[in-house]
Amino acid sequence: MLTARRRVAAAAVILSGSLLLTSCGGSDDGSSDGRTLRLWHYEAPNSAMGVAWKEAVKEFEARHPGVTVKFEEKGFEQIQKTAPMVLNSSDAPDLMEYNKGNATAGLLSKQGLLTDLTAQATTRGWDKKLSAGVRTTSRYDANGVMGSGTWYGVPNYAEYTMVFYNKDLFAKYGIAEPKTFDELTAAMDAFVHKGVTPLANAGAEYPAQQYLYQLALSRADRAWVDAYELYQGETDFHDPAWTYAATTFADWVKKGYISRTSSGAKAEDAGVSWIRGKAPILFSGSWWFGRFEAEATFDWDTSLWPGSDLTLGSGGNLWVVPKAAKNKELAYDFIDITLSKKIQNLLGNKGAVPVAADTSAITEPRAKALISDFNTLSARDGLAFYPDWPVPGFYDTLVSETQKLITDSERPDAYLSHLQKAYDKGVPGR
Question: What mean pLDDT comes out for the span 365-393?
Answer without folding.
Answer: 90
